Amino acid sequence: LVCFLLMINGVVIDRFGPRITCILAGTLLTATWTLYGAVASKHVEVANPLLTFCILSGVSAWLAGFFTASVFSVITKSFVDERSGIVSIAKAWVGLSSGVSVAIFIGFMPCTEEDPKRLHFLYCLAVVSALATLC
Questions:
Q1: Half-sphere exposure of 47 (CA within 13 A, CB side)
Q2: pLDDT (0 to 100) of residue 14
Q3: What was the pLDDT predicted at 20?
Q4: Which of 41, 60, 58 minimizes the C-alpha distance to 126?
Q5: Can you say whether the dihedral through the CA atoms of 83, 101, 129, 54 is positive or negative?
Q6: Which of the residues in the chain have pLDDT under 70?
Q7: CA distances (Å), 71 to each of 42, 94, 128, in order?
Q8: Quick check: helix, strand or coil at residue 37?
Q9: Coil, strand or helix: which one is 122?
Q10: Helices (H), strands (E): how many in the chain?
Q11: 14, 107 Cβ separation under 8 angstroms
Q12: What is the longest distance spanned by two Cα atoms in the chain?
């Protein structure tokens, strides 16, 4: 199933290009993280929260893959002579970005582990997705 879904990412990028793909995926990713935050904060009631979180988590990971695939598609074509170094830098950022975003969120919204304000991180991810889409 994962291989099939990743193949869809490549087909969409090839068909519509990285710009349209990022706009479409970013819009859907923003909506997914917003819904995830709303369900987690109990602003939206669902019959089976665990199943909902599993589905939203999978969808958000798949949609984020559109951004990653688009970026790598562009940089491998744009930096032919420096491809190895550029891809290494981009891959390093993919690995570090989650830790950096958590550190920034905790820096601006310090709270204990039990504090419900921690769930606002999901809304923070929605804002970051929206900003990435606008760029």
A1: 0
A2: 92
A3: 93
A4: 60
A5: positive
A6: 1-2
A7: 35, 11, 16
A8: helix
A9: helix
A10: 4, 0
A11: no
A12: 54
